[in-house]
Amino acid sequence: MISRFADLVKSLPRRSPANPFFLLRPPAAPRARAMSDLRAPEHQVAGHRASFNKLGPLVDGAGLLYKPLQAGDRGEQEAAFYEAFSSHPAIPRRIRDAFFPGFHGTRLLPTAARPGEPHPHLVLDDLLAGLEAPSVMDVKIGACTWPPASPEPYVAKCLAKDRGSTSVVLGFRVSGARVVGAGGAVWRPERPEIKALDTAGVRRVLRRYVSSVADEGADCALAPAVYGGEGGVLSQLRELKAWFEVQTLFHFYSASILLGYDANAVAAAGPGGGVRVKLVDFAHVVDGDGVIDHNFLGGLCSLIKFISDIVDETP
Amino acid sequence: MISRFADLVKSLPRRSPANPFFLLRPPAAPRARAMSDLRAPEHQVAGHRASFNKLGPLVDGAGLLYKPLQAGDRGEQEAAFYEAFSSHPAIPRRIRDAFFPGFHGTRLLPTAARPGEPHPHLVLDDLLAGLEAPSVMDVKIGACTWPPASPEPYVAKCLAKDRGSTSVVLGFRVSGARVVGAGGAVWRPERPEIKALDTAGVRRVLRRYVSSVADEGADCALAPAVYGGEGGVLSQLRELKAWFEVQTLFHFYSASILLGYDANAVAAAGPGGGVRVKLVDFAHVVDGDGVIDHNFLGGLCSLIKFISDIVDETP
Question: Carries keyword Transit peptide (chains A, B) (predicted)?
Fold first, then answer.
């Protein structure tokens, strides 16, 4: 077994047209009935979206999501992370199953953008599968989104974004949201609105995420069911925090926590029913080298405090 | 009451020769029998040292330390912090008493450096008073040592130091140490050695801090008594952590945790005997504005993990 993640990445043959599957495990068998069943997910809230001439994630409607490998080394880094993480004996099974998308290898898929040049995709569990009316939020965790050994221009670019957003001040930033309110009305802020969020704005979005009203008001009616109670967001985040207090295997720079719940079902299912808390986006994960991920942990604790304040304020 | 720390700082009259006591409370009565009793502390491990022509902290041998106000706004900032903190009704008394130096106002003292121009000093508890053979370590907490609203040159200077030291990687850096080993032999690394510490070096210093041997070896013989047990460093740091998980009043940029114990007494007193864990250096503290200090908290959790690893490894 290759114990250090960096060594695993180094050991991988470089991707090339002749060698598109650079990973150790065989690609997953497709579950989609046909390639034509693949479609851009309706409920994506952050990252590149698939369109006629752009690569983006695709879902098969049968529980899988296909995420195109990113350009540069990022695609390989993310694939190598999933490979290392999914087989690492020191990751508690409960942590892997509860907080990370299931990984099913990689798969070459034809793309509309470049006919005749299939592109490698990560095959992952579709985290929103089975939710009838998904309310989703993507929260990028950490005051610092650049791994310490990054090249200078990348550090400068990330630092400007971290200082220009709430990352430095709050230890996290909201990267996207989609909230299903009363009568199925959907609120989905555009990227400029998301990027302009300050501390008060983040607090508003976190309240609106658990509100049943469709307008700008926030009644936080779903806070007890979604954020509170057994199996709710808070209890899941606290379980994740306990792991981050001791895990020294990986540092999750620029990763996000994806929150999801079914707006239709959550009231019926009661506290915690159907609430999902998952880590996503691992293109900048690096070796922990025996040190805890204090950057992720600090941001996670800050997010927990914001959410617990909302639960405490809700009768 | 002025509730926001920033408002308190703004409300203070500027310091001037005509108005050297800008604080709200009257200066403390001197406890030293005479000014000539004041001397530079023997056991200082970080910061400027007092000498014939340099300002530095002085102790009176009766339990008080006089810290000269720093240049620029820093001195006022630190004094304003002590003023705000020592009277803030939302600070639990146990936290203030256990983890912060007692504050006794400010006092003008003549200085050798500038005869005829007395300089204002903070009057604080001498944290090492009563220790016969003090082993001391200063650990600057936080991956980021610059408050978000700092001017660009200051950000650039701090960021270079944070990246050049272990701060970014570990969430803390050792700023100084003094360890009394067998037979009273003192190990006190010079600043260049301290500044060059990498992750492995920090681990070595943390082990050596609780070792009874005088040479470079580290037997960690005192780890159970100093780091472990009831009242030991770990249990105190965990109590501090619990407060940082909820406190949103102050962000402690560039503050340090000072560890101290009496090498002569610690074996006799048993686990936790005489072990001190205090926060110091508050020139860059800013308002928390309702957000936890995720930067300090993350670094604190990282330090806790390093120390708990040493306790776990010690039989």
Answer: no
> CA torsion sign, A197 to A201 to A202 to A208?
negative
The residues, ordered by sequence, that sit 6+ positions from A194 with a Cβ below 8 Å of its Cβ are: A174, A175, A176, A177
> Is residue B120 classed as helix, strand or coil in its secondary structure?
strand
pLDDT(B284) > 70: yes
Determine if residue A212 is left, alpha or beta; phi over 0 gives left, psi from -120 to 50 gives alpha, anything else beta: alpha
CA-wise closest residue to B291 among B261, B252, B247, B240? B247
**Helix residue spans in chain B (DSSP H):** 5-11, 74-87, 93-99, 152-164, 167-170, 191-195, 199-208, 223-226, 233-244, 266-269, 294-313
Shortest distance between the Cα of A185 and any Cα of chain B, in A, equals 32
- Is B246's CB within 8 Å of A148's CB? no
Which residue type occupies A180?
A: V
Q: What backbone phi and psi angles, to 5 degrees, belong to B199?
A: -55, -45
Instruction: State the pTM of this model.
Output: 0.91
Q: Which of B289, B290, B295 sits opposite A298 (nearest CB)?
A: B295
β-bridge mates for residue B173, sequence order: B140
Helix (H, G, I), strand (E, B) or coil at B284: coil
CB A294 within 8 A of CB B171: yes
Per-residue tokens: B131: 């220790």
Alpha carbons B252 and B283: distance in angstroms, whole number: 9
State how far the alpha carbon of A103 is from the alpha carbons of A31, A65, A78, A89, A205, in Å.
Answer: 14, 10, 11, 16, 30
Residue-wise pLDDT for A134-187, tens only, equals: 999 999 999 999 999 999 999 999 999 999 999 999 999 999 999 998 888 999
Q: What distances in angstroms separate CA B287 from CA A46, A116, B80, B153, B171, one per listed residue?
A: 32, 58, 12, 21, 21
DSSP string, A176-241: EEEEE-GGG-EE---HHHHHT--HHHHHHHHHHTT---SSS----TTHHHHTSSTTSHHHHHHHHH
Residues of B in contact with A163 (CB under 8 A): 148
Whether the Cβ atoms of residue A87 and residue A93 lie closer than 8 Å to each other: no
**Could you please report the per-residue DSSP string of B82-104?**
HHHHHH-TTS-HHHHHHHS--EE
Distance separating alpha carbons of residues A168 and A202, to the nearest angstrom: 13
Closest CA to A127 of A216, A185, A47: A47
End-to-end CA distance of chain A: 52
| A251 and A296 Cβ atoms separated by less than 8 Å | yes
Residues in chain B whose beta carbon is closer than 8 A to a beta carbon of chain A?
Answer: 143-144, 148, 159, 163, 168-171, 199, 245-246, 248, 289-292, 294-295, 297-299, 301-302, 304-305
Long-range CB pairs of A206-210 (<8 Å, 24+ gap) are A206/A137, A206/A174, A206/A306, A206/A307, A206/A310, A207/A310, A208/A177, A208/A179, A209/A135, A209/A137, A209/A177, A209/A179, A209/A259, A210/A310
Backbone angles phi, psi at A93, to 5 degrees: -55, -40
Chain A: nearest CA to B291, how far in angstroms?
7
Tell me: the pLDDT tens digits for A281-314? 999 999 999 999 999 999 999 999 999 999 999 8
Structure tokens at B95: 């936290």
As a whole number of angstroms, the distance between CA A174 and CA A127 comes to 18
> In terms of DSSP H, where are the helices of chain A?
5-11, 74-87, 93-99, 152-164, 167-170, 191-195, 199-208, 223-226, 233-244, 266-269, 294-313
